[in-house]
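[worker-b] picked up task from shared queue
[worker-b] task type: protein-ligand structure
[worker-b] ligand name resolved to flavin mononucleotide; SMILES cross-checked against name lookup, match
[worker-b] sequence length check passed
[worker-b] input payload:
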Amino acid sequence: MADDLLFSPFRLKNFTLKNRLGVAPMTRMSAGANSIPRQDVLDFLVRRAKNGAALVYTEALVTDYESAQGYPGQARLLTQPQIKAWSAVVKAIQAEGSLAIMQMFHCGRMAWPEVNPAHRSIAPSPVSPKQDNPLTQAPYPLPEEMSQFDIEHVINGFVETAKGAMAAGFDGVEIHGAHGYLINQFLSAYSNKRTDGYGGSASGRYRFAHEVIQAVAKVIPKDRLLIFRISNWAIADMEVSLFADVAEYQEIIGLLAKEPLDALSISTYDFKDPAFGTGKTMAALTREACDLPLLICGKIYDRASAEAALQDADIVLSGKSTLLNPNWLDDVRAGHPLKPYTSDQANVAYTAEPLL
Ligand SMILES: Cc1cc2nc3c(=O)[nH]c(=O)nc-3n(C[C@H](O)[C@H](O)[C@H](O)COP(=O)(O)O)c2cc1C
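[worker-b] inference finished, payload out:
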């Protein structure tokens, strides 16, 4: 069907995606002491490419051996054995005609000091989330305010991880600026109380993201992709709007549009939800403020929702449906009746049970 937008190609920089559907980044907490995910977790990504996804994200990789890690069993891309393990996965994904994208993050105040080699929790300001850590059922520790040294050290972690991704052959990298992790903590006045050049106005709070993007861009060749993920919600204190209002959100998007980025990925609970009391969706508000290609994610689970999501975005990402339904792309193509999966159902991602 010539008018089947979902299954039509999309030109993203120098790449042609074979359709508009991708696998969202999903943490699996399966890595051992070597910070390499379990083999079945790596195989899962390749299988999703075989099943037709145009692009496949890795789980969020942590950017250092100091303070970045928020969950046990997280992966890294900083050593030669890690590069070797990922390079096999990347080759297998690309052999299916799909793109392999590495996502990386630093958890900031969402870090779990016990699983971090340096046992540190650092953040823009010494403010912890109000909600307890769901994994420990205990309050998150009060983070240390990041010094200039910390800021530079953390930026270097993003750069080194991006270099690892390039060495492993990834088609692109995504800087995770969403979900209340470190970059998002800087962006939001909810967690950023700094009075130096990294805080205050929206442009001050944006400075850290800018420095990360600029430093990472230097190590990404022109023929690979650099993507940034953003959200207005966080894993902890979920109900809080991280941006004060639509003007602040669009100001930040306008700043991102000036960066050497190839796309923006917008993460929502539900792509249809109106945002900031405007009656418009996050995707529509983002599109108003920038010309970058957009990826959209959040409760997209069948053909109708995927088609609706493409009205204000270019590529649709699915988390839970691609996690739990190996035939998701075929089911969407056929227009089969499908239901959204729950977060409880998705918790199997964190167990040793291999997924189909
Ligand atoms: C098991 C699991 C792990 C996730 N891990 C990440 C992650 O590492 N990075 C990220 O940006 N989002 C992560 N997410 C969020 C998803 O990328 C996605 O935004 C979310 O599941 C909403 O999409 P859905 O309604 O299609 O599931 C995770 C979601 C699930 C279910």
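[worker-b] attaching auto-annotations
[worker-b] The longest strand covers residues 55-62.
[worker-b] releasing lock
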